[in-house]
Amino acid sequence: MILFFSIFGASFIPRYSLTPVFEFTNISEIGNWTLLGNALNKKSHLQLTSEAAKEFGAVCQRVPTLFNDWMVYLELSIEDYKPGDGFYFYYSDQVCQLTTEDIKGFSIWINTSSESADGSYPIYFGAYDGINITKFEYLNIGNVTFPKTTKKLFLLFQKLSDIVKVSSCETSIAGQYKDLFIFSYPTLINRGYFSFVAKNSNTSGTSFSLHTVQTYSNEPLQEIFDPKIESHNRKIIYSRYYERQLKKKGRRSKMPKSLFYISQLKEIQNVTGTDIMLKDAIDIIIELYERSMNSITSGALERIIRNRLEIPLNTAQDKIEAASENLNATRESLEDLWIELNHKIKGIRSEAVISMESIKKEMMEAVKDISIGKCGLESALGLEPQKNEAIIEILRKIALVELVIYIIFFIYKHRKTNGFKGGKSD
């Protein structure tokens, strides 16, 4: 008790604690607590799950806290570790909170599916006041470690007015607790229920065990406990249990061959210790497939869709963005190239005009050199072959120059009119 006095600085009164040796006071009940799922009473501890996959176990408080400020001291251990879902602590306004769905209160989660290089596990905190319509999200508040020697972790969850405090320690020695999280939450519920839940993944599991749960308050009970509340909560818990059993029974009723062979196998194994041959394996596989299809939930579909589509879609989006950037760069390069070609075409046009003028002058000089005036009409009709060839050569040059000018003019007009469609090319 000295440990708890030093943390709070005040005397705390034990309330609704769970300490060994654990003895059932009713079916699946130990005092004011109820065991659910795969939870087992091992006398010295409460085993919430084994190393089997898909298991879950819970210890739920049937009596609400009748005080505002409290502390929960917890001893938790793990065995046969394989990556799994983890351990949850819930403080909620509903009895036996098993998930964060519709939670009003807060939750603390030790995520054993993600182990760090130093052997520690991340721990998360999430809260919802039931008023603000916001998505429930966990906040990473640190890491905790299960020592390899004892494999036991000591945790303290405290609520003082509107402040929540989470501490951890690898030993039970006073003064060695490390504060992981201190948070003020003005709209946090004042009265609620404690629930301890362990879950294994669909492929592997860890054996979680509760060794001690001690709850304390620093104030006397402010109201008299109504036994009808516990009776009502017991009905709620068992209604959930039977509802789950009915769902399982309904699914199993669709597997007659599997159930028949399983019962025969158990009988023969108990009597002779030998196995039997399953001749209708195909029918059993079909039944298992149909049952698994009927067992798919919206949450499972959401996880499948996220794993199968979200990553490829993000990759495709990155590629599209990269291609868009390359397209813009290519467009800019084409524009620069077209400006350069336009400039060169204009230069060719200018050079052609200058060349035309030069050729024109040369032609005029050549014509002047021909002494047409020295000959009369008779001589003109009887020109010598050499002079005829000179005149023909001059005409050929004139025709060639005109052809070149016409081609340059055609290219220039084709560019200016966008392929003779009208409009500017700029």
Biggest sheet descriptor: 8 strands, antiparallel
Head-to-tail CA distance between termini = 87 Å
Rg computed from alpha carbons, rounded to a whole number of angstroms: 45 Å
- Residue share in β-strands: 15-25%
Keywords: Membrane, Transmembrane, Transmembrane helix
Transmembrane segments: 394-412
GO molecular function: D-mannose binding
Explain the overall architecture.
The protein folds into 3 domains: 2-248, Jelly Rolls, CATH 2.60.120.200; 257-294; 331-416. It is 40% helix and 24% strand. It contains 7 helices and 16 strands. It has helices at 2-8, 227-252, 256-271, 281-294, 298-369, 377-381, 385-416; strands at residues 13-18, 29-30, 33-37, 40-41, 46-47, 56-61, 70-79, 86-92, 105-111, 120-128, 139-145, 152-160, 163-169, 178-184, 193-199, 207-217. The radius of gyration is 45 Å and the shape is elongated. One of its GO terms (molecular function) is D-mannose binding.
Task: Offer a concise description of the structure.
It is built from 7 helices and 16 strands. The chain has 426 residues and is of the alpha+beta class.
Chain-wise SSE layout:
Elements: H1 2-8, E1 13-18, E2 29-30, E3 33-37, E4 40-41, E5 46-47, E6 56-61, E7 70-79, E8 86-92, E9 105-111, E10 120-128, E11 139-145, E12 152-160, E13 163-169, E14 178-184, E15 193-199, E16 207-217, H2 227-252, H3 256-271, H4 281-294, H5 298-369, H6 377-381, H7 385-416
Antiparallel strand pairs: 1-16, 2-3, 3-6, 4-5, 5-16, 6-15, 7-12, 7-16, 8-9, 8-15, 9-10, 10-11, 12-13, 13-14
